[in-house]
């Protein structure tokens, strides 16, 4: 027997067509720093996306070719998000926070021939251009001094002039739903950045899932303040999902400082927002100093790193509910969201809200334990999180003429993504991450979380900082080494610290090796650099006490 | 460039796995007529579905084979809904309202070898069995006298005995997402019933769309009273979509009369319900006579036929909001839902609520006008509605050894489904159906709605019933013939009726041909039988007055 259903591909042009007609009245509001923000309806976005596609086609952008964007969150970036994949080309969002040499590497690796750039970002792009030999066209959108582009090699176009007068409809091609639609490079801390190429299918399904009630579940009654950048994992999929469901977008452009964010929330009254914890920390400090009305926000999606419970509590008091989400570039990024099960009191909900959240229907998850076994979902057994699903990466982009890359430490032999995160899953599917796989201590077939030991140590009143790393051990394979920075005037010793740890940590997990150091080595983004500590230990550069 | 995403199929086994773990606490409550209804968690449903699959496998059900269900809405039917497709077989729901000869035709055409039946429906099945030579196994679930099965040809099994003690996990096969999952026959008024074969992909995507906020958007805080039968277009997709999102199901089993429905709403307090207008008419009469608390219901999906505005108003007064949906067996069935755009007053919402609703992201729509042209979405230009999308049929099932059927009047040459409905679409995508394509009057390149003329005529105080049909006309191709049944003692005449019509209908649409008849011929389900009227006219059997 065969199905008798139509075989219609899941395409971004369908999101564009649907949003710009059925939800044509919904708006994208872009902050301008002027007295009035800029507003454009989804119907207008649809017409301008068609105009942009006609313009790009004329500049020689063909199906399967990447087009780069170096842009803030704004209406023109949304137009590029919809037009470029719909015409069959590949939207390549460029992370403007990366070091210039990484940016140049990424543009060259993807072989971008066209870059759309915000005028305000020309000071970043212009010095790079001599290192981007394949870039033929630069299209400048929004305010900013264009004079720096005088005499550069590529052809320069003004976005508005380029699209003006072109047809407001485009006969979008009927693509294969597995065709490439967008790409994003991970800013990995080791080695070159690696590209993930999303398909129309993956983005379409991800958008549906984001719009499902068990995920974000926003409607055309909502306005979403999209703080998470469009150059960062598709702004967590929001430009696509909001356009699909008619959710109004509030776009901060380059005004990402706490004061303008507070002002835009008070004035535009978004019901939802999405941003990393740092943004919410800054905003909290801002509104504590200069009170603003944030009460329009009833749901906030927070991800990128774990949200401190104290921050959640502070916002709870403001009537703003922060909801943890977990994901990564390789997961499009919706991996989990911490919506507690129904029917619980606020007190019962609290432990659920502290987890990374539960998996949506489209994501399968498993934990691979120390010995390679699949661990049970019992809330206690730890393993490396591996995920599978139609919007999860199977490989990295190898380049225009190369095979995809499938590094063994990132993809299991049966095709699951190895997330590099270690944690537990409760019987009802709530994920709690406890460590990074590369930092966990593999001791005698069991895993010890370095993060748990660090947090317990740092709770001691005399400890300023503590990093715990795995070091080789003849009997157990690996054992934890505790590296401690003491506060000024501290009088504690190793034995007391170890006893203190023993109050909250199982005895077999307690470190035998200890060292007091003046400071913990850190990476460029301020994380503990455990590689350095392990090397110092291996070289005998640390003064170790064994207990 | 190629996408680097995983190629994971969209399968019903994923809905089963997700619902029975992440939403394992949600429940299916089946009405029993006893003091207590029966409750089962999604986790238990998951285990029992695995047991059922093991049992069916042992009885010889293989991948691609149909298994019939002749069942009410209840927990066991949900188990069959999930187990049969997940194991790779095809769920074939049998419409117990069909005449016995049609039921026999359908079972034989699909080549069902196994039938799951509720004990209470044995009086329907047993007389059919001698006409079902391919049926080898009958599995009886729920209460009902089994003695009628003594001596029948197929092997008889008790559902509970059959699944008891079997493993509660099943290694669901990794199927092609386009593999057949379920089938449902249309109960067409002409010719043999025709089968639509849904795929895993179509059902999975349909479930996602139903769970999106622009569609039903239910959550694990909701309980859905699923009155629409599971044998009728997959109960509008609710068993799949609710299981996916953790929505509690309240299943009426055979207790579909107004009194038990009112009791189950008052006692179980569902927040949502889905049923045809007749059910809501009956329930309204019931609660008017015997008041019950229906206030738990905040949303009701109403479809199958248009809901009279007076019924919506009556329920509005009870605090229960009826929301129109339109669809058909060939559309899985979600075609439209009348959720008004955001930000309107109740008065502004009203005209939107009277439409069939707007199309969801996954459904493309076009209107094909009288001359075959695509008509604009202007709220005025009428055409036959054609739809396209991943859960819309492309053909009918031809039978085990036959090609799929693609009748010209049902499928356009470019593959769109011709719905047979005529209507208009507003610029923001709200559909208003005005007639059936076969009944519309094609007059001089324009269309005249027979239904509009009938409604206008029946508004006259002297008119009991009126049917308007197309009759051949030399000059215009077709013109309307008005067939009128007068009330007793009526004194009106044709000229007065025509003048009355002229108050609300454009002059060029007014019928020239009139006849007064004692009664309008009707079909077996009580609809006007316009074929008979047209034949009577052609045979000269009607007494025609021309004005």
UniProtKB/TrEMBL annotation, chains A, B:
Entry annotated with the keyword Ligase: yes
Naturally occurring in which organism (per UniProt): Streptomyces lichenis
GO molecular function: ligase activity
Superkingdom per UniProt: Bacteria
Keywords: Ligase
Every AMP-binding enzyme C-terminal domain range: 452-527
Domain AMP-dependent synthetase/ligase intervals: 36-397
PANTHER family: LONG-CHAIN-FATTY-ACID--COA LIGASE, MEDIUM-CHAIN-FATTY-ACID--COA LIGASE
Pfam families in UniProt: AMP-binding, AMP-binding_C
This protein's name: Long-chain fatty acid--CoA ligase
Alphabetical list of PROSITE patterns matching this protein: AMP_BINDING
Signal sequence segment: none
């Amino acid at each position: 027997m065969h199905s008798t259903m139509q075989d219609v591909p899941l395409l971004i042009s369908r999101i564009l067509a649907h949003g710009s007609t059925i939800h044509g009245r919904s708006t994208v509001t872009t902050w301008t720093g002027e007295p009035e923000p800029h507003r454009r309806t989804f119907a207008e976005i649809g017409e301008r996306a068609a105009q942009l596609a006609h313009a790009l086609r004329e500049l020689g952008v063909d199906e399967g070719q990447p087009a780069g964007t170096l842009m803030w969150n704004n209406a023109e970036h949304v137009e590029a998000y919809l037009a470029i994949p719909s015409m069959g080309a590949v939207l390549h969002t460029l992370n403007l926070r990366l070091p210039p040499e990484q940016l140049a590497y990424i543009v060259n690796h993807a072989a971008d021939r066209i870059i759309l750039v915000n005028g305000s970002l020309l000071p970043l792009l212009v010095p790079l251009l001599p290192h981007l030999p394949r870039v033929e066209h630069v299209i400048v959108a929004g305010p900013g001094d264009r004079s720096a582009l005088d005499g550069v090699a590529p052809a320069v176009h003004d976005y508005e002039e380029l699209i003006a007068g072109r047809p407001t409809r485009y006969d979008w091609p009927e693509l294969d739903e597995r065709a490439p639609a967008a790409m994003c490079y991970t800013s990995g801390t080791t080695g070159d950045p690696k590209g993930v190429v999303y398909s129309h299918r993956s983005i379409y399904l991800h958008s549906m899932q984001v719009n499902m009630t068990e995920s974000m579940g926003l409607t055309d009654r909502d306005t979403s303040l999209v703080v998470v950048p469009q150059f960062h994992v598709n702004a967590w999929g929001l430009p696509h999902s909001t356009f699909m469901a008619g959710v109004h977008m509030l776009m901060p452009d380059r005004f990402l400082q706490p004061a303008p964010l507070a002002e835009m929330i008070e004035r535009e009254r978004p019901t939802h927002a999405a941003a990393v914890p740092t943004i919410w920390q800054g905003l909290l400090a801002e509104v504590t100093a200069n009170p603003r009305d944030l009460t329009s926000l009833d749901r906030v999606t927070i991800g990128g790193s774990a949200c401190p419970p104290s921050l959640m509590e502070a916002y709870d008091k403001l009537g703003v509910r922060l909801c943890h989400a977990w994901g990564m570039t390789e997961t499009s990024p919706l991996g989990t969201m911490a919506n507690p099960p129904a029917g619980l009191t606020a007190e019962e909900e609290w432990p659920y809200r502290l987890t990374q959240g539960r998996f949506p229907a489209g994501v399968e998850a498993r934990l691979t334990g120390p010995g390679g076994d699949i661990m049970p979902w019992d809330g206690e057994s730890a393993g490396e999180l591996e995920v599978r699903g139609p919007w999860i990466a199977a490989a990295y982009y190898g380049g225009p003429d190369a095979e995809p890359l499938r590094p063994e430490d990132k993809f299991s032999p049966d095709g699951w993504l190895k997330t590099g995160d270690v944690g537990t899953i409760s019987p009802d599917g709530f994920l709690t991450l406890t460590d990074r796989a590369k930092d966990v201590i593999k001791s005698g077939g069991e895993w010890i979380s370095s993060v748990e030991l660090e947090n317990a140590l740092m709770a001691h009143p005399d400890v300023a900082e503590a990093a715990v790393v795995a070091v080789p051990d003849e009997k157990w394979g690996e054992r934890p080494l505790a590296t401690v920075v003491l506060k000024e005037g501290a009088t504690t010793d190793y034995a007391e610290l170890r006893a203190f740890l023993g109050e909250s940590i199982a005895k077999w997990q307690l470190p035998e090796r200890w060292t007091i150091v003046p400071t913990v080595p850190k990476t460029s983004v301020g994380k503990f650099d455990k590689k350095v500590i392990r090397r110092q230990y291996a070289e005998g550069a640390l003064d170790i006490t064994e207990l």
